[in-house]
Design a protein that fits this description.
heterodimer; A: about 1100 residues; alpha+beta; four-stranded antiparallel sheet; 23 helices; B: about 190 residues; mainly alpha; about 65% helix
Chain lengths: ~1100, ~190
Amino acid sequence: MTSEPDIDSIFCQAIEFAADTDRQDFLERACGVDAELRARVDRLLAAHARAGHFMQDESPGTVAVPCPLELVGSHIGPYKLREQLGEGGMGTVWAADQKHPLRRRVALKVIKPGMDSGQVLARFDAEREALALMDHPNIARVLDAGTTAQGRPYFVMELIHGLPITAYCDAHELPVRERLSLFIQVCRGVQHAHQKGIIHRDIKPSNVLVTEQDGAPIPKIIDFGVAKALHQPLADGSIYTGVFQAIGTLAYMSPEQATLSPKDIDTRVDVYGLGALLFELLTGNTPVHHKYLEQKALDEAFRIIREQDVPKPSTTLSSLDNQLAIHISKHRGTDPDGLGKVIRGDLDWIVVRALNKDRGRRYPTPDAFAEDIQRHLQSQPVEARPPSASYRLMRFYQRNRTAVVSGAAMLLLLLTAIVGTSAGWLRAITLQRFAETESQRANEETESRRKQLILSDIVAIQRLLGENNIGDVRELIKRHEGEDDQELHEFAWEYYRRLINELDSHSRVIDLDQQATCVTFSPSGSQIAVGQLGLGALSGGLITIFDADTGKWVQNFGPKDLWSYALSYSPDGESLAFADDQPGRFIVRHLASGHETLLSGHHGRVKSVAFSANGEYLVSAGQDDFLLITDARTQTELRKLPVGDKGVAALVFSPDGSRLAVSGEDRMTRVWDSSTWEIVQEFSATLSDLSHCLAFSPDGGLLAYGTPRDEAVVRELATGKEVVLRGHRDAVRSVAFSPDGKFVVTGSRDGSVKLWDARSFVELRTLRGHTSFVQSIAFSPDGSLMASASRDYTVRIWDIGKLMAATNLVRPSHRAIDLAFAGALDGFLSLSTRGSIELWDKTTGRSNKPPDFSGAPILRMAVSASQLLALVTAEDVIIRDLRTGEELCLDHGGRLPPMFDDCSPAAFSHDGRFFALASEDGSIQVWDVGGENPPCCFNQAHHGPAECLAFDPCRPVLASGGRDGKIHLWELDRRQRIGTLDKHGHRAQVVCLAYTPDGRLLASASFDNTIKLWDPQEPNTTPRTISAHVGPVKTILISSSGRSLISTGGDNTVRIIDIETGQTKATFTEPRSAVCRLAISDDETVLASAEVTAGESIRFWRAR
Amino acid sequence: MTNVTQILSQIGQGDPTAAEQLLPLVYQELRKLAAAKLAHEKPGQTLQATALVHEAYLRLVDVDQDQRWDSRGHFFAAAAEAMRRILVDRARRGRRPKHGGGLRRVDFDAVFPASDAEPDTLLSMDEALTKLEQEYPEKSALVKLRYYAGLTLVDAARALGISPATAKRHWTYARAFLYNELLGGGS
């Protein structure tokens, strides 16, 4: 028997057809020519048709119980079954005749299997006496209970010929008033039972039947005592019956019953049940949609019942679709508008009160409930009032306690704001807030989940980038494409996305069949020759020529078993020299004709071969102890040069051909003068062991080499001075200078390619994309293209123009001590140690001419969001409007207090109204730039000078952080200190402060290595601490969304941190650069940092 | 005694070995329960397989700790399988000549006198179910939960983590499948 995937669905669809012809048509289509499939479906359909009651009663003990028809006339206890009245969730109801002790017709309810009948009966017996005491016209009495021969419990009760109350009312199209009258009778019946100590526990329409006596409708409540008997009492701790029984009646279940082991049930569960019943009588719907609950897992359904607020009946009505609303209203003898009017107001509040989650707030008794309805019918004011706002607020907080903790500040703000205003306003605000919160809660939950997903992907991206696993990073980035989440607009994500986009737009890939070991451009730049590592025979040979512009394959040749890492074009580009796979030999191939010249003379394998610059001779080296110089035209040996006894690792000519550098396996590097063949320099690699790659700078003055460690070295040949390039994570296997001499490129075993500034030797950027060793790097002669060959079976061609379109690293004329973004100038302003200001274009990073800032040296600057620039000199504070060029000089009473040596803390308020400056003498001066007020001065603000200042974006408040580790808050209208943030505060000086844009958080950076997040409205609360840096934290910025914090510290990292979770979203490490200042462009696409130690440079990170 | 609640919690935490420990425990408990019933109940008293399963649940599982429906699902799945084996075992022995001579065997078989299912029916049913299990594991799990553990369609759906509508479709199909098998229709 083979499994046919769609037989299941064909069968299920087929049984839906009522007409046999339709079904046949369907089967023709669905099975097509598959006769076997058709036969199987037909057999199943036949079985389905004949199955009858097979397994309908799904217990093996009752498999063969006869069908109901056959039960008619049979006995259960003393009762003879007459007709089946109905079948419900609980069991089957029969009309039966009782003969003894008296003849009467009764209703007999046989409970479905799954109950322990002994316990059910025991519980029923416990209530039997109380049940017998009930005598009320609206209650159908329960007469007896017992067990069937199959062990199922049954109940015997007064037989009511009637319809469930909702069905009855609809059938008779009873208007709301008449429904209310009937309902009041139901309340009276329940009240009576309560007085006898009986709780129904399961009030619902099917348990309230309406019969007619003398033409008048009489509601009768059935099943008193049954629910109790079926529900396990608390004492024996068993719950499954409760669970199983619950299913059918969830929609009417009170919150206190909505648990797996309901405790402490009292009469008020019936008040709730009555409320739910009234809700349905009025609206035709249950308070919580039945279907909705049924789809949920039980505990989820329970949670909804316990927590989800019940809507007002009128709200439910107005949310119905039109057709349904008309239908429901028609059953109530009116239209949707009319029905809404009747229900809105009193009836809304009456129902809502009965359905209160807190039973203490429900009507205390069914009678009280009935009386309030009576009052409504008599147009008297009802007792039910709108639930008080404070109560709802309280419930809201009970339910959302965790979520609310962060919202506590909001609440306090709210509460503070409403002092002195009317209670009505309070209610309006809180209710509105409550409603908004309710509706937003679900959204926020999914949002927060999505954010978590993105954050975890960000963590993964950081790891994958470290492993150069670009493919997976690309997948992760793609995963969130098209999603709309603020987190995806934050700097970190945009940065990663740009990285991938840039890789695709700035480089192209040539796919190879083998791992690439070396790459070189032809002298014209039109072709690229790629050597590959191949073991075993390969049809075309292991050297491939590609077209440099298109990447198209041109030809294949060479040895089958290549192990050389060097290829060399003749200067005219017509020939290519390469090592042969046979020991002692190398080959010069004429590319156009394919003619190959075999050269020999070596003892061991040839490793390297190179044409001289004039093309006259070839130099080759290998496993033997000499260099072989061969005449390129005559192929005669010119001379042998000894190079040490261990062989040669790499050799390279200087661009002008005057020098030849050779690194030996003996760890010696020798430089020959190629005209005299004398060694002009010889050095052992002091900083490293062996170099497998060598490169001359275009002017021949520098020699760069890679090392088996994670370093590359650049040596100034004239002086012997060496600079180490650190940043790779594994051996440097390739090195090259750009033809313009501006940068050095290194390729590493770690799969990355790094570009370094050839003056400062600071890392410019890392190029990722290869997934295995980068073995070789070559530039096109014009410097427009760079090729990197990797063991990942690719060569990547990089567009240098695009890569360098925007510079990532600039060198100001003097070291920058401060940095600020000026939107009006579309660039970053840097202030140098010499007191001069430079401007750097946001997009290109290149130097732009700054506005004229002539005059006294500038000691400090600050830019407001409103584009006012403050310039502090030793004598004056000048405010310049960057948009208009207007200037004004701040009044300082003739003399400014002494400035810091380096960079005095200064701050501009967001709106540009206030400018503050801290002085060495410990004072803080605040100017009201936009207003008329005289400047104010806070003297001795801290023990020692203030180290940093920040303005609250929402209030006229200035925060200052001091060398004493404290943060003070200064109110600027009243000109006084309003608070100090020092509870669990910093243990060392506070050096930077930043507010979130909504002013709800103040972040502080300290030399105690931590960042703390404070609630500035609540100075006494404990701050959150973020310990992301392993050294002192120096600068912090907060993104405009308030979600990300950008910080830099003594560990020489720049980190982007998620404020909510404290998680690091991106880390930029610059091993040789101590970042002292940070600034970000107003659109948050460019982050700039001023670095001190290595290059005294300004670096840009771009997210777009 | 091994804590069944603990095992359920382990299953809930994704411990794949935990589920295997459950079946023998439930199986033993069911047999023990049946034997105890036989010893203490009045002669003629009947006992339903499904009621037994539910009672076993109450005895084995610490319901205060176990509030999750999914773990309950695991229990009933194990119990259904246990009950299936018990019934099949009993049916097989019912067809064999009695052994043990005239000795009165205290066997819980005797507690199922009211089972209307003939041994042959039970065994054919078991065979058919095995076939269904091979082709449609989820459908057969549903049948077992309903047939042997007495769960309603809705409860069984929850235990399996499928929607009631899907459960209903599965049930309809499984029923036709099994009936066809019992009729000897095969496929």
